[in-house]
Amino acid sequence: MAGEQGQKDRIPQVAVRRLPVYLRTLSQVRDQGIEIVSSADLALLTGFSSEQIRKDFAYFGAFGTRGRGYNTATLVNRLRTILGLDQELKAALVGAGHLGTALARYSLSRQRDVPIVSIFDNDPERIGRAIGPITVESVDRLEETVREQGIRLAILAVPAGAAQGVASRLSAAGIEAILNFSPTKLDLPPDVYVQQIDLGLELQSMAYFAAQGRRN
Amino acid sequence: MAGEQGQKDRIPQVAVRRLPVYLRTLSQVRDQGIEIVSSADLALLTGFSSEQIRKDFAYFGAFGTRGRGYNTATLVNRLRTILGLDQELKAALVGAGHLGTALARYSLSRQRDVPIVSIFDNDPERIGRAIGPITVESVDRLEETVREQGIRLAILAVPAGAAQGVASRLSAAGIEAILNFSPTKLDLPPDVYVQQIDLGLELQSMAYFAAQGRRN
DNA sequence: AATTGTGAAACACTTCACAGCC
DNA sequence: GGCTGTGAAGTGTTTCACAATT
Predict the structure, then answer these.
(1) Each residue's pLDDT tens digit in chain A (216 positions)?
(2) Are A59 and A79 in contact (CB under 8 A)?
(3) Does any strand D atom come closer than 7 Å to the Cβ of A215?
């Protein structure tokens, strides 16, 4: 049996979240013309332990050569496939306020792999405005555009009060993962992956670590 | 013996990072005039399990009444003390580009507990500009201002190439925790708490979870 | 009767240590 | 000889289940 080639057991979520770090590091190393790296080299560059790096790669099937190390170009391609970046998954941004606009500009300039292709807002002042090559659309057109463009990911940067409503609509429209910058817990079917980023919460835990000390 | 009142064993980092969520939820509940909540109520509101909530509170000494639940007002105050928010820890922002400016505006409007009091940049175009009530200073004045104002936290929103240099200066100036939005791993003494937020990495792991499916 | 507080069991993740392969 | 790949041990975190308390 055994489904997709080389994939073992259940893979820890945390391991998946390290893959993009490996990918970025390996791309840089490859671009310096270095063809082989060891897990020890990667440990130095990423701050993760060499054992952990080897184990993470092993979850997806082994890519190294014993006695030598890993081929940078091969591993970059393999990681891109594993992450699904060869599919050019499209993302939508909802919320073209200060934060949303900044995120869009940042993403448009750097992030070719997961491109933002549509931006929505409900403020008539903002609709029609251009952000880079994209024109802000009315949020009324959300479902339609998501379907037409085959958008599968969304970034949410709307006020707290609007977040749940928009998220439900995104979910109903078939969006598979949401990166939520609004300070609200989203209640969604479990087949939607939600990643929360919350400046307020982060600052408050920083206060704890600064005040009571002791990192770990 | 036993140091600060009521603090048990070693406290899991993950538990600390949940406290701000409890604090926010409890503040909302309290502001609705509700005086008592059970861990089951909080579980519904936060999405964490009731056992976990009780255990988290227990790490810091017990605050509930058996048979009744937790007093919202008391618990809010207690959490604020634990997190160190009664100290009004000041934060600096370094990098007044699109993202930095958006973060500053967001924080200035909402986050009274951990106020941003200074903003730095190295671009002469930006120095002297006002963001809300704050005037952007030259990054040359970083050490001086940090000491004068007693700033203990920093938010880093500079280009990748500049991040390590600025972070080292912040650390040398005595900053205790850094929230890093630059896509760079920071190498700093272990007594500086670093929390990384990286849009590019988040989008890439979202691609995985959308592509290969299965949430957990 | 209801709900906390908590040891013990279960689960998740990381590190150790070494066999296997180049 | 050097470095990967991996079971086994160790550590960290969550869930279970129930005694303690109001």
Answers:
(1) 333 444 556 899 999 999 999 999 999 999 999 999 999 999 999 999 999 999 999 999 988 999 999 999 999 999 999 999 999 899 999 999 999 999 999 999 988 899 999 999 999 999 999 999 999 999 999 999 999 999 999 999 999 999 999 999 999 999 999 999 999 999 999 889 999 999 999 999 999 998 665 333
(2) no
(3) no
The answer to whether A192 contacts chain B (CB < 8 Å) is yes
Tokens of B97: 């580009």
Cβ contact A58 with chain D strand, < 7 A: yes
Q: Which helix (H) or strand (E) holds A93?
A: strand A91-94
A132/B contact by beta carbon, under 8 A: no
Candidates A27, A180, A209, partner chain B, best to mutate (most B CBs within 10 A): A209
Query: Which of residues 36 through 75 in chain B touch A, CB cutoff 8 A?
Result: 45-47
Cα A76 to chain center, whole Å? Answer: 17
Q: Which residue of chain A comes nearest to B82, CA vs CA? A: A208
Q: How far apart are CA A207 and CA A202, in angstroms?
A: 9
